[in-house]
Specification:
Layout: E1 2-6, H1 9-26, E2 31-34, H2 41-52, E3 62-65, E4 67-69, H3 80-89, E5 99-100, H4 109-122, E6 128-131, E7 153-156, H5 159-165, E8 178-181, H6 184-188, E9 192-197, H7 203-211, E10 229-234
Parallel strand pairs: 1-10, 2-3, 2-6, 3-5, 6-9, 9-10
Antiparallel strand pairs: 4-8, 7-8
Bound molecules: fructose -6-phosphate.
Fructose -6-phosphate (F6R) is lined by residues 35-39, 66-67, 132-134, 138-141.
């Protein structure tokens, strides 16, 4: 795992945007796995700016998002579908038919999740998967558990996640209790993985995921087994790693 140190969130966003920009330039038909949440907001802004400068072309890319809250309609302003359009797709030339986000209203979760994974395989697999990380070490919405999950599936959100994400809702009671999420297996099939982590509240999760035992109790620790992971962290997110990160 390659860990890149950034002095603050802005530098983290620029460095991470460089990795995605390089991918899109080198392979214009890339399959991207995309993430939401506060961590990638800055890097999406960077990508939009570079698109506006004429340096990036998204017309060939295909994308599948990591996750979505169960029960939220795509036009709900806290849905991840809405987030992706608001932060990226409304501002660049990706083709709507190439953009995929799990639908919070899926009626047959098992079949719909399996179809989502099958579409990714059919597209040739994910070239570059973007991830954030939860304070409990989750990736996607794969929460600490006894086992690693395989494919896209329905998840009961952990109390810590509901608590962390209540800042986006009127109250904790308004945060959906479940989500659809790519599985650990889906994520680990990506050819390259880019993780962005910012803030002191993530510092212990970063240390556990990068240097602790590989265990489903820290879902991000599985990334130690992937051959091509780049993690971009700001100083605050690395604050308990000490000399482990140069
Ligand atoms: C989002 C996702 C989550 C977030 C994580 C961190 O699509 O899958 O794993 O990356 O919860 O969220 P933020 O960035 O809001 O701290």
């Amino acid at each position: 795992m390659k860990i890149i140190r950034a002095k603050d969130y802005d530098e983290l966003s620029r460095k991470a945007a460089n990795v995605i920009a390089a991918q899109v330039i080198v392979k214009p038909r890339s399959v991207l796995g995309l993430a939401t949440g506060s961590s990638p907001v800055g890097l999406y802004k960077e990508l939009v700016a570079r698109y506006k400068l004429g340096d990036l072309d998204f017309s060939g890319i295909r994308s599948w998002n990591l996750d979505e809250y169960v029960g939220l309609t795509p036009d709900h302003d806290q849905s991840y579908h809405y987030f992706m359009y608001d932060n990226l797709f409304n501002h660049v030339n990706a083709r709507p038919e190439n953009i995929h986000v799990p639908n919070g209203l899926w009626k047959n979760p098992e079949a719909d999740c399996a179809a989502y994974d099958a579409e990714i395989v059919e597209a040739g697999g994910v070239d570059l998967q973007l991830l954030g990380m939860g304070t409990n070490g989750h990736i996607g919405f794969n929460e600490p558990d006894e086992v690693f999950t395989r494919g896209t599936h329905i998840v009961d959100l952990a109390e810590t996640t509901i608590n962390d994400n209540k800042r986006f809702f009127a109250s904790a009671a308004d945060v959906p209790k479940q989500a659809f999420s790519m599985g650990i297996g889906t994520i680990m099939c990506a050819r390259k993985i880019l993780v962005v982590v910012s803030g002191e509240n993530k510092a212990q999760a970063v240390k556990n995921a990068c240097f602790g035992p590989i265990t489903p109790k820290v879902p991000g620790s599985i990334l130690q087994l992937h051959p091509d992971v780049t993690m971009v962290c700001d100083e605050a997110a690395l604050s308990v790693c000490g000399d482990l990160v140069k």
